[in-house]
Design brief:
heterodimer; A: 272 residues; alpha/beta; Rossmann fold; 6-stranded mixed beta sheet; 11 helices; 10 strands; 37% helix; B: 292 residues; mainly alpha; 2 domains; 12 helices; globular; binds adenosine-5'-triphosphate; binds magnesium ion
């Protein structure tokens, strides 16, 4: 079945902007995931707090990406993927048949591990999400692009070169462009899967500043392998281990006084 | 010992490369020499402006236009068939089909290009033409429409396979970025995957055109042997390739002007396909740079 394309018109979006968006609630109940016969998530419950940064940490292959991609149903296209359980965003089960996945994904933006700008101009990259919604109003798009680029702290660097190919930007700039592209659609939740793992320390610091700034308006979930990064930017931390959520709580608590031995081992192991 | 072995292998590889180049140069030289002789008797201006090609008649005309138009007309029809079908197949296979389906269908499609072209020619003449005559009553027994359509079917895999390769090479992360912003599969296919693969797709189309222009058997069998400057696809025409076959199989005297027309026609064909190949090579080089 091909999902219908929803055309929000400009007017709707403007109204949407004026109305204060309610911070989203995210609840996960008894979620299990399989890839064919392999059980990647073994039954996880978690509630993510609105307008916070939540870090997902854990060793490689423990299911952080799999779990993160449940929230915008990005796993749907993977062969052999199966899930069970409930994920409720603002009280609504996002896996219900009647949920239009395209609409869901406008609410929930995603930034990926490797910067993945489209081979288009800087402007077209940021405008993409608006154009696919059928928005034609040039003025409106122009404003949104500018706003998003400013929010992503990239505007000053690219404002004279908006027509330039996005591929000509540095890795760090590309990643900020990808963040801008996500912001232009005005989601309320942003999922980030190791967004700085391909970047140098300076670009990383920029993106961390950005995340701290963004959390005032957005709910952010970030997967990271960098313990310092988790402790620097997140309010809450969830520690995953082989498909299970071992511990979840305030970042400060997790990093200074974890309840579980496994958590402590993982965190201290990293710090040496 | 090892060193000697490596040396022998290296030298023999080098020699085969050299032989290939030598043969190519040889062919071009023969073509060029005979063509130059031809053009010492027929003016280039006539060759390109005369609207009749009648070297085998008593009243001789040497205008390449009828043959060129025949070639371009059949190729155009072929592309008109192969392009939409081939592109749809490639987009379906790379963007929608399950992996297992793609893996079985692609080689099957490529079989289309492996069918001997004489079979296609025969098929055009005795199946497609009679069928089309039901719809178009005044369609001649030999015509460019039926030859072009069948040629189009033959070159579908050139378009579909190479385009699919190009689409497949588009990183999955670009599609995910698009889905992540709320794009549908259809939007992602046409606004992200196809543009990102565009140079590869264009190369596939150029190669398909090049293949169509050079195709001989189908047009020789089903399109007729009547050089005619026309855009009407229902009447017999003759392509450059079909003419070359006709004269080569006939009994024209070596060294005669009739004989040399083969080379004049041949070099025209060569220049045409050479230009297309150069174009596709250029595009491919640019495309590799882009993905680096
Ligand atoms: N498409 C897939 N098909 C089959 N198995 C998969 C697929 N994607 C992930 N897996 C498996 O699911 C498990 C969890 O993978 P996931 O990518 O979620 O881990 P991760 O915690 O994000 O790891 P990393 O830190 O290395 O990114 C792994 O064992 C992995 O091999
Ligand atoms: Mg991961």
């Amino acid at each position: 079945m091909e999902p219908t394309i929803h055309k929000n018109n400009t007017q709707d979006l403007k109204v949407n902007e004026v109305l204060q968006k309610k911070p989203p609630t995210i609840e996960v109940k008894e979620v299990k995931v399989w890839y064919d016969d392999f059980m990647a998530i073994k039954g996880i419950d978690i509630a993510i707090k609105p307008n916070t940064v939540t870090a997902f940490i854990g060793p490689s292959g423990c299911g952080k990406s799999t779990f993160l991609r449940l929230f915008n149903r990005m796993n749907d296209y993977i062969d052999g993927y199966k899930m069970e359980g409930k994920i409720k965003i603002n009280g609504k089960n996002i896996n219900k048949k009647k949920v239009i996945v395209e609409v869901l994904r406008k609410e929930i933006g995603m930034v990926f591990q490797k910067p993945n700008p489209f081979p288009k101009s800087i402007f077209e990259n940021v405008a993409y999400g608006l154009k696919i919604q059928g928005i034609k109003d040039k003025n409106f798009i122009q404003k949104r692009v500018e706003k998003a680029l400013k929010q992503a702290d990239l505007w000053e660097e690219v404002k004279d070169n908006l027509k330039k190919s996005a591929l000509a930007l540095s890795g760090g700039q590309q990643q900020r462009l990808c963040i801008a592209r996500t912001l232009a659609v005005e989601p309320s939740i942003i999922l980030m899967d190791e967004p700085t793992s391909a970047l140098d320390p300076i670009s990383t610091a920029k993106i961390e500043d950005l995340i701290r700034e963004l959390k005032k308006k957005y709910t952010i979930i970030i997967v990271t392998h960098n313990m310092q990064q988790a402790s620097r930017i997140s309010d809450y931390t969830a520690f995953f281990y082989i498909g299970d959520l071992i511990e979840y709580g305030k970042t400060k608590k997790i990093f200074t006084n974890p309840e579980k031995k496994q958590t402590e081992n993982y965190i201290t192991g990293r710090f040496g | 010992m090892r060193k000697i072995k490596e040396l022998v292998i290296e030298k023999s590889l080098f020699t085969s490369a050299l032989v290939t180049i030598a043969v190519t140069v040889g062919i071009i030289l023969v073509l060029a020499v005979e063509a130059v002789r031809f053009f010492s008797e027929v003016s280039i201006l006539d060759f390109f402006t005369d609207t009749q090609w009648t070297p085998l008649f008593t009243e001789k005309h040497f205008g390449i236009l009828p043959l060129l138009s025949g070639t371009l007309l059949t190729s155009f029809i072929a592309i008109a068939v192969a392009l939409p079908i081939g592109l749809s197949i490639s987009i379906y296979l790379s963007e929608y089909a399950p992996r297992s389906f793609r893996k079985t269908v692609k080689p099957l499609l490529e079989l289309l290009a492996a069918v001997p072209t004489v079979v296609y020619g025969f098929f055009a003449l005795i199946v497609v033409t009679p069928f089309l005559q039901e719809i178009i009553p005044n369609l001649s027994g030999f015509n460019s429409l039926s030859a072009g359509i069948v040629m189009g079917i033959m070159i579908i895999p050139y378009v579909s396979s190479l385009s699919e390769d190009a689409l497949h090479a588009v990183p999955q992360s670009l599609r995910e970025a698009s889905y992540g912003m709320g794009a549908t599969k259809l939007q992602t296919a046409f606004k992200v995957a196809v543009p990102a693969a565009s140079s590869g797709i264009i190369v596939s189309i150029i190669l398909a055109i090049s293949r169509a222009i050079g195709e001989t058997m189908i047009v020789a069998i089903a399109a007729g042997q009547q050089p005619r400057l026309t855009l009407d696809p229902t009447v017999p025409i003759e392509t450059i390739t079909a003419y070359i076959v006709q004269v080569s199989l006939g009994d024209v005297q070596h060294g005669s002007i009739e004989y040399r027309t083969i080379f004049a026609a041949g070099i025209t064909l060569f220049v045409l396909t050479f230009l297309l190949n150069t174009l596709s090579y250029r595009i491919r080089k640019k495309y590799h740079l882009k993905y680096e």
